[in-house]
Design brief:
Layout: E1 5-13, H1 18-32, E2 34-39, E3 43-45, E4 55-64, H2 68-81, E5 98-104, E6 109-110, E7 115-116, H3 125-135, H4 147-153, E8 161-162, E9 181-186, H5 192-202, E10 206-208, H6 217-223, H7 225-249, E11 258-260, H8 265-274, H9 277-291, E12 299-304, H10 307-317, H11 327-343, E13 349-353, H12 363-374
Parallel strand pairs: 9-11, 9-12, 10-11, 12-13
Antiparallel strand pairs: 1-4, 1-5, 2-4, 3-4, 3-8, 6-7
């Protein structure tokens, strides 16, 4: 997973449907940059530095995998899309939307196009007031004062009115938590763990991950599949059963939202591919006994990637014992999953083809996946 940044952004509008522009801007930031963690109340303030209609101002905190410089580029695109065109000679004037980076977890940033922290924070009450609403204890890394202290000592005496309306967090449109227990499955290298992590972080879910690296038979299996298939599949089955029973059992599926990157059914799918017929019959008997006691996912997602893309991902993540996995084996696993899914009419299943998507590097691809899961 890439390193994430926390960035505070100021939003202002004083032309036309000010509330609408602010909401559109927050939606666009969520869809293109990152998770919106906090949204302040809306402050109505007089135009600062020129005569015009009052501004509506908001501050948000986002979590993103992009750098501050990359975020700035996207913010400028959002401004342009909402009818504002920045020019170097613009000065202070009315605007449909104004987006500024205030703070970044990258610390102090100084480039030709960007200075962070924003150099005028301490002089602008319309920025400090909504910022204090979401992060009053945030310390300015240069001035060494908290936001609340900066607000208390600012020389700006502008009047601030708090509006009764609120900007909606865009992720509220996604009702993922309503499924209560979400399982994300996929072939080796499909990205199921990465997606499970992203969803758990963004939607405050309890996370259950498979401990594949702890299985001593796995490296041996990739060296000699026929010899080590049965002990591998039996050890995986025992571990998955125990882990799911322990981890899921500690949650209240009526209250908690749980996301897992595997389901015990994957044991059956892989066993069908790797085991001899007599071994599989014995394995199936043990599986059926164990499966009765386990909770079933409210939504079962299968991330499909074509074999070429799977091999690329496996090579990229660099696990030595996976580098000899043949394409034929991955094809069999894909077919096994798809056959299983077709046979489970009682399951709530979604197949999502992410062969041409990169939901880690590209926020828009991640949002596309969320839409596929919830529509």
């Amino acid at each position: 997973m890439k390193t994430s940044n926390l960035i505070h952004i100021s939003l202002g509008s004083n032309i036309g449907n000010r509330l609408g522009y602010l909401q559109q801007a927050v939606d666009a930031i969520y869809n293109t940059i990152g998770d919106v963690i906090k949204i302040s109340r809306i402050c109505q303030t007089p135009a600062w530095g020129f005569s015009s209609d009052d501004f509506y101002n908001v501050c948000i905190l986002i979590k993103t995998f992009y750098s501050s410089a990359e975020v700035l580029d996207t913010l400028l695109e959002i401004e342009n899309s909402l009818g504002r065109n920045r020019t170097k000679n613009e000065g202070y004037e009315a605007r449909t939307i104004d987006l500024d980076i205030l703070f970044s977890s990258e610390g102090v940033v100084k480039t030709e196009n960007l200075i962070v922290p924003h150099p005028s924070i301490q002089d602008r009450k319309f920025v400090l007031h909504p910022l204090a609403d979401i992060d009053s204890d945030l310390v300015h890394p240069i001035l060494n004062q908290t936001v609340s202290e900066l607000l208390e000592h600012t020389e700006d005496v502008s009047e601030i009115d708090i509006l009764d309306v609120q900007i909606m967090n865009p992720k509220e449109e996604y009702s993922l938590s309503s499924v209560q227990y979400l399982t994300i499955e996929g072939n080796i290298g499909a990205g199921k763990t990465s997606l499970a992590n992203l969803i758990a972080q963004e939607f405050n879910a309890k996370l259950v991950l498979e401990r594949f690296a702890d299985n001593p038979f796995l490296p041996k299996f990739y060296e000699d599949m026929e010899r080590f298939a049965f002990p591998l599949e039996m050890s995986f089955l025992a571990d998955r059963y125990q882990r799911l029973q322990d981890d899921i059992g500690q949650f209240d599926l009526f209250k908690d939202f749980v996301v897992s990157d595997y389901d015990v059914f994957k044991s059956l799918i892989f066993a069908q591919v790797t085991l001899q017929e007599d071994e599989y019959k014995l394995y199936k008997k043990v599986f059926d006994i164990m499966y009765r006691d386990l909770p079933k996912p409210g939504l079962y997602v299968y991330l499909y990637q074509n074999t070429e893309r799977l091999l690329e991902n496996i090579k990229k993540r660099g696990r030595d014992y996976e580098q000899k996995i043949p394409a034929e084996y991955l094809n069999k696993i894909n077919k096994g999953y798809l056959q299983f899914i077709k046979s489970q009419s009682h399951f709530n299943v979604k197949i999502v083809d992410v062969s041409d998507k990169d939901f880690i590097q590209n926020r828009k691809d991640y949002i596309w996946v969320l839409n596929e899961l919830t529509n």
